Amino acid sequence: MAVSVLIPTPLRKYTNEQDTVTVTAGTISTLVVELEANHPGMGKRITDDQGELRRFINFYVNEEDIRFLEGKDTPVNDGDVVSIVPSIAGG
Fold it and tell me: Which of 42, 45, 49, 69 could form a disulfide with 14 if both were Cys (CB 3.0 to 4.6 A apart)?
């Protein structure tokens, strides 16, 4: 099962500057594990010390915010596109 993951600019140093990587995963949680396995260092940037997704990193599956789906248990299927979007603060 191939899932495309869109990598934001600040995380591309972990993917050899690739803006999109392909993983095989069943949920957002397993996708994060695979990202870390294939791109060491990325996992610590998108999860906290307890392994939970960081508050200020947003995940979208086919443009749907996972916070309104099943969170880290949101399934991802063949052909899906997952976007990782860091929140931007300012004022």
Answer: 42
Over its C-alpha atoms, the chain yields an Rg (Å, rounded) of: 12
Flag whether 37 is in a domain: yes
The model carries a pTM of 0.91
pLDDT by 10s per residue, the chain, length 91: 699 999 999 999 999 999 999 999 799 999 999 999 999 999 999 999 999 999 999 999 999 999 999 999 999 999 999 999 998 776 5
CATH number at residue 22: 3.10.20.30
38 within a domain of the structure (yes/no): yes
Asked if residue 91 is part of any domain, the answer here is no
Q: Which helix (H) or strand (E) holds 35?
A: helix 28-38
DSSP, res 75: B
- Number of structural domains (the chain) is 1
